[in-house]
Amino acid sequence: MDENIKRSIILDHYQNPRNKGLTSDKDYVKININNESCIDELDLMYKIDNGIIKDVKFDGEACAICTSSASIMTDILKGKSVDEAKKIYENFNNMIEEKPYDEELLKEAIVYSDISRQPNRKKCALLPWFSVDKIDR
User: Fold this and answer.
1) Among 3.30.450.40, 3.90.1010.10, 3.50.50.60, 3.40.50.300, what is the CATH number of 3-134?
2) Residue 85 in contact with residue 77, Cβ under 8 Å?
């Protein structure tokens, strides 16, 4: 993917984040994720029904990479089973860590394929995805 297209997608998701805003609905599970080395701190809320992620929302204070990653992640995970979400997270993590991964599973999250060139930004991209490990099946 062209670098300008990648930047454009990241900027769009930062300036117009999808699924941003929390809910008081008790059917959602809230997970807090933070990065001790910077300001990034997000609350993610998952609505899971019969092992399917029906909805996912996020809010918090975070940099452009973290916010855009959360926005892209929430779009990708909606409608997926928890097991599928964990597999997508594993592939995203592999991409960030420069290990083999399935590009097809990542959809728009592929825009972070070069983030490993900026090691200090890797955790920014990964932070919202860490919440997937905390979802109960």
Assistant:
1) 3.90.1010.10
2) yes
**Terminal-residue alpha carbon distance, the chain:** 34
Per residue of the chain (137 residues), give pLDDT as tens.
Answer: 898 999 999 999 999 999 999 999 999 999 999 988 888 999 999 999 999 999 999 999 999 999 999 999 999 999 999 999 999 999 999 999 999 999 999 999 999 999 989 988 999 999 999 999 999 86
**C-alpha 37, offset from chain centre:** 19
This prediction has a pTM of: 0.95
**Among 94, 91, 126, 95, which residue's Cα sits nearest to residue 105?**
91
